[in-house]
Write a structure and sequence with these properties.
By secondary structure, this protein is α+β, with helices and mostly antiparallel strands. It has ten helices and ten strands.
Length: about 450
């Protein structure tokens, strides 16, 4: 896996992980909030139902109060009238009232008349609740509520119900009514369904946003990756083209030196030898023949020196024979002797240096010193090569004229050659210069392969 792919993963994975955690925490918080809201809603709903039951009981008491206060009716007549009134009272679709004696005997039950006259003191609902006993108990406290299961008309199926009961003190009767909670539970289930639907919609919306974001990040990474690849390809093509031009230029120069230098010297040498041969055939004096042979020897020596210089330009023999440190030390000594400029030289490298790095460092040093000789008018130069982890650091500083415009420096052929030589071995090239404060050439060259 490449470095760029790892960077994209490094950006996407934490994004997905953090988003999943945030979504999970948000969902948990939303569920807890929904449960709390449902609890509050259920409490308020039940409370409203209880208040309604109280109101219904108050209405029922108001309806029978004139009978209770009447002086014209006997006790039995009053009881009969109260039973008739309570038996006729209705509210809502299934609301009714009932009356029980203090002993648990049913006196009025409009929806289940078969219960009238039965003693339900020991009656238990499906949960084992002695509901008549509990209703009488809360009624004797001045009125109270009790939850139980009871048959709901018209189908008479069991359903949870909340009842409210009070005492009719004149005869110690318990008057009660109740509301079935099925509608309440249905309303709560609808509210819960709406909340769950909202949570699901929120989760879906967040998931869509996350997916779009992840896709956008991946596409952006791929676009950047593609752009960098194209940019790198264009730079590589430009570098290869410049290298080819440099190579063609070097070959052209080498061809010109061979033709104009060595070839001319060899032609002259051949001419001197032929001239000596002609003089020998004409029996001319020994001194004249020796003079031509001596000149031919001088031409051969010049040819040898020219060949050595060309060979040195192609690759210094000192690099192969004695190593980079010795070759650079000799180069610095030649420069100092030729220009009378003092040079501080330091070579602090303990590892083996690849051949391509050696020749690059030598050529960069050679080009840097040449530029100083031609342009800097410096009196002091410092040249350092040091090892830093897996890199070699090259620095060449002078106290010459310098330049305030780096662009003007960067356009020089020598600097272009240095920059390209460093780039070809995977290094980085830096140039700093200030007018009146000299110039600093710096290069960082890898001595170990860079990991992708």
């Amino acid at each position: 896996m490449g470095l760029k792919s790892k960077i994209i993963l490094l950006a996407v994975v934490p994004l997905i992980a953090s988003t999943v955690i945030i979504i999970y925490l948000s969902l948990q918080s939303a569920r807890e909030l929904a449960e709390e809201e449902l609890s509050i809603y259920e409490f308020n709903l039940i409370h409203a139902k209880k208040e309604a039951l109280k109101s219904h009981i108050s209405i029922a008491l108001s309806a029978i109060q004139p009978i209770l206060d009447s002086d014209t009716l006997s006790d039995e007549e009053a009881k009969a009238e109260v039973k008739k009134v309570i038996n006729r009272l209705r509210y809502g679709e299934d609301g009714y009232f009932y009356i029980y004696s203090s002993s648990g005997k049913n006196l009025v039950h409009p929806t289940q008349p078969e219960l009238v006259g039965q003693n339900l003191w020991d009656f238990q609902d499906k949960s084992g609740n002695y509901l008549i006993q509990h209703l009488l108990a809360v009624a004797k406290t001045g009125g109270g509520f009790h939850r139980y299961f009871w048959k709901k008309p018209p189908y008479m199926g069991l359903e949870e119900k909340i009842g409210y009961a009070v005492m009719i003190d004149r005869w110690h009767w318990m008057l009660g009514t109740g509301l079935y909670l099925g509608d309440v539970f249905l309303e709560l289930s609808k509210a819960k369904a709406n909340m769950d639907a909202n949570i699901r919609r929120s989760f879906f919306s967040v998931s869509v946003v996350v997916i779009i974001t992840v896709i956008f990040v991946i596409l952006l990474g791929l676009a950047i990756n593609l752009h960098e690849h194209k940019l790198a390809d264009s730079k590589l093509k430009a570098l290869v083209q410049r290298f080819m031009r440099l190579q063609v230029s070097e070959r052209r120069r080498f061809s010109r030196e061979l033709h104009d230098g060595i070839n001319q010297l060899l032609v002259s040498c051949k001419f001197r030898i032929e001239l000596a041969s002609n003089k020998l055939n004409r029996d001319q004096g020994k001194d004249a023949i020796d003079e031509e042979l001596l000149k031919a020897g001088e031409l051969i020596n010049l040819t040898i020196q020219e060949i050595r210089q060309i060979s040195h330009d192609l690759r210094p023999t000192l690099l192969d024979d004695l190593g980079l440190n010795t070759a650079l030390s000799a180069l610095v000594d030649q420069f100092s002797e030729r220009t009378k400029v003092s040079v501080d030289y330091c070579f602090d490298v303990s590892c083996d240096i690849p051949d391509e790095i050696e020749i690059a460092l030598y050529r960069v040093s050679q080009e840097a010193l040449t530029n100083i000789d031609k342009h800097a008018q410096a009196s002091h130069v410092s040249l350092y090569i040091k090892q830093s982890r897996q890199d070699l650091v090259f620095e060449c500083l002078d106290d010459g004229l310098g330049c305030s415009q780096e662009s003007a420096l960067s356009k020089g052929i020598g600097l272009i050659n240095m920059r390209e030589r460093v780039a070809l071995v995977g290094g980085d090239f830096f140039l700093e210069s200030q007018k009146g404060k000299g110039t600093k050439v710096r290069a960082i060259l890898p001595i170990a392969p860079k990991m992708d």
